[in-house]
Amino acid sequence: MKFRVCAVLVLSALLLATASLAKQPADNHKNVHGFVLGRNDVPLPGAVVYIKNLRTKTTETRIAEKDGVYRIPGLPQNIDFELWGEYGGAKSDVKLLSSMDVRTDIEVKLHVDVAK
Questions:
Q1: Model pTM above 0.90
Q2: Do strands 110-111 and 29-37 pair parallel, antiparallel, or not at all (unpaired)?
Q3: Inside any domain, residue 9
């Protein structure tokens, strides 16, 4: 009798654990967005945003919208990236997007020392 009770309790615990794991999202990607800003936080439309994959050493670009906003969706969570912006020959500091950062939605402001 005790064996049956223990077996039922163990099976119930396993079922609960499995159900809770099934509810967790399986998305292994992160989305990066933000603004490219000049002096006095003036938006820089048309600024070029660079995203470099540190595993493959490949670089992609995005163009900031009219309000200085950029969006880079779907970056793999397990890869480190470098991010920077350029406008009018000037460059922002390079930001590291670490694979250790488990956030799925990351905002990064890129400041370029240029007057508009």
A1: no
A2: parallel
A3: no
74-99 pLDDT, tens per residue?
Answer: 999 999 999 999 999 999 999 999 99
Cα–Cα distance, 46 to 48 (Å, whole number): 6
The number of domains in the chain is: 1
49 neighbors 70 (Cβ within 8 angstroms): yes
CA 65-71-66 angle, to 5 degrees, is 10
- C-alpha to C-alpha distances, 69 to 32, 47, 52, 72, nearest whole angstrom: 11, 9, 19, 10
**CB distance 34 to 108 below 8 Å:** yes
Q: How far apart are CA 42 and CA 98, in angstroms?
A: 27
C-alpha to C-alpha distance for 9 and 14, rounded to whole angstroms:
9
Asked whether residue 6 is assigned to any structural domain, the reply reads no
Note the pLDDT tens digit of each residue in 95-113: 999 999 999 999 999 999 9
CATH code assigned at 86: 2.60.40.10
Residue the block writes with tokens 């039922």:
8
